Structure formats: C-alpha cells, structure tokens
Amino acid sequence: MFMTAPKIALLASSLVSAALASVTIQNNDPLIFFHGRWDSSPGTWWAGSGLKLNVVGLSSLTLNLGSHTSSPMAAVGVSVNFQPFFTVNVTQGSNKIPLGTLPKGENTVVRLNVEGWQNNRINLQNIVLNTGAKLLPYVPSKLAFTFIGDSLSAGQFLPLGVDQAWPFLTGEFFKAEHTVIAQPGAALSDIVSFSNQHGLSFEFFRTEDDGYFFTTDHNFTTPWDFSRDHPTPTHIVIHIGANDSAQNISASSFIQTYLAFIKRLRTLFPKQPLFIFTPWGWPNADGSIGQYYPGAYQTIVNTVKSGGDKNIFLVDTTGWVTFADVFPTNQHPNVGGHMKIAANFEKVLTNAGVKPQANWATPIVKV
C-alpha cells in the first residue's frame, strides 16, 4: 500500500505530537501518596491534608481540580525536595505549581497540603506532568505523628496556616509523616461550640472536619476508615480543652469525656505513646496567665495509668507561652510562639527517646 505525501506528513505530525504529549496521572493512581483525610471525590478535609509525589524527570506539574474545590480559592503549601513550604493559591480548573530550578538527573519530591482550617478543600481530578516524567513510589517515614486539637494546633491566624503551627513544625523536625486533626472553636465534648456542630470526640472519627455544616455540596459526615492512615501513627499527641472551658463544661464532665475518648482511641491505637498536653493558658499583658481545668489533665493521665496503660505521658506546658508569644488581640500563639512550643515539645520527645530521622525516607538521588 502506498501513502500519499499528505498522509505521510499527517502520520509524522501525529507521531511527533504523541512523543511530546504530557503525562497525565489519574486521581486513583496508586503512586500518589495521599495523607490526611480525603473523601471519595477525592477531596481534602482538615488543615494539613494533601499528597506527596516522587517523580523522575520532572520539570512541570499542573493540578487539575474539580468543582468541590473551595471558592474563590484554597491556599496550598508546597515543598520541593523537602525545602521550606511556600503558598500557592489554587482554584477549580488548571493550576500550574511553581517548582523553581530543579537539578538535572535527580528525582524530585513534591509535598503539597492545604494550609487553612477553612476554605481547605481541593478536589483532585488529575495531575499533569511534563513529557518524559515518571512517577515513582514515595516511601513514607517510619515515624508518623497524629495531632488532635483545636485552634491552638490548627494554625489559626498564622500567615501560612497549619504549615507554621507547632504540630507541623514538630513533624518536620523529626522528618516524620504528620496528620493534624484540629478544628478552631471545637470542644472535645460533643457539643455545639463557636459554630462547630460537633466536638472532637465525634469529629475525630469522621472524614470531614466541622466545616461540612456550611457546605452546600457535602453537607454531611462519613466515618473515617483508619486503615487509610498510612503509615499507621506511631505517636498520638492531644492538646484540647480551651473550648470546653469556654462553653462552661465542668471539670468532672470534661475529665469523663477525655477518658472515654482515650478509651476509644485505644481500640485503634492500642500501644502507641499518648502525649497529653496541659494548657499553656491565655497570656495577658500584665504577665498573668488565664488557666483552665487546673489539675484535670494530671487526673486524666493518672487514671489511665492506674488502669494499666503505662504508655501515656503528661506534657506540662507551664511557662511555654508568654504574652510576647501570642497575638495580643486574641491570645493565640504567633509565628514565634508556635516555633517556641515546637522547640519545647521536640525536647520532650527527644528526652522520651524519640529521635529525629537522619534523612527523609524518600531520598533525592541521581537517576
């Protein structure tokens, strides 16, 4: 069979186009390493949720996001090759992620997470990479922290949101995987508190954060499948109670709720060390500290230990935060305050035998 010149030209053009075609990664590709909590769309909930990619031959990366993405935009933290996170505002549609200048002949690790406790939904449709790029497995760290809390852990009021909060900083210091399940205004008790319809004793076990109540496209919660926590958390850290106090929950009721919460956690994480923070309180300009539930956290830890669980530890945060470490208008830790809290907790963990990993588990190597 003979081909005419136009047909030959068309075939050649098609072959060139195919060779130059970009690489599309579908949202169900097993080499996408999802972390935090994603619903089935798939879409993120909770500050800090996101994904990680390990790519060889990378020079460009575009996120295509669907209709469940927060409007008008969602702030996303991006880290390339484990360098500091920077913010990219993404929207429904096509979003090119700046990567900077990448070394030739090495793999690239891109980490991406939503920063905010609200407007924090990205609905992944697919990821488009440059021609010749190839997705490789991301190897997670052997250390994996789960942090549970409220605004004091979620990074409320910080310029980079959760990415500047003490839980996130602690995880980065140890080169660990880290998940932050923290909701500003939420109590531990399952009550309405500052527009949150539930407390963490309920919401921790759900896929969605309490923002679900104000959405029109996903106005419900679903049970979280803890088998999706990969790797399984090695350490659990809890700092909560400010909003229970604000809602006038009695100390005795708070203690009972906390004990029941720990009991339920132990059905999921039977042997992991539990670190229970005391409040650092609300620092005032005159140097005084507004406290809540004095002695309650020691009672909680002692009660659990008396029942035979020795893998629970009280973290006494007395003196960690002063008025210089908070925003004066709301008494929440500022950027420096979160850094100070993280440094103090890192010492606690190190003294408890938790050592920072020497290197990230997914190395940057010549390929």
UniProtKB/TrEMBL annotation:
The lineage of its organism: Eukaryota, Fungi, Dikarya, Basidiomycota, Agaricomycotina. This is SGNH hydrolase. Residues 1-21 form the signal peptide. Gene3D superfamilies: Galactose-binding domain-like (2.60.120.260), SGNH hydrolase (3.40.50.1110). The keyword Signal applies. PANTHER family: ESTERASE, SGNH HYDROLASE-TYPE (PTHR37834:SF2), GDSL-LIKE LIPASE/ACYLHYDROLASE DOMAIN PROTEIN (AFU_ORTHOLOGUE AFUA_2G00620) (PTHR37834). Coiled coil: none annotated. InterPro entries: PCW_deacetylase/CE (IPR052762), SGNH_hydro (IPR013830), SGNH_hydro_sf (IPR036514). GO terms for molecular function: hydrolase activity. Keywords: Hydrolase, Signal. The keyword Hydrolase applies. Residues 147-338 form the SGNH hydrolase-type esterase domain.
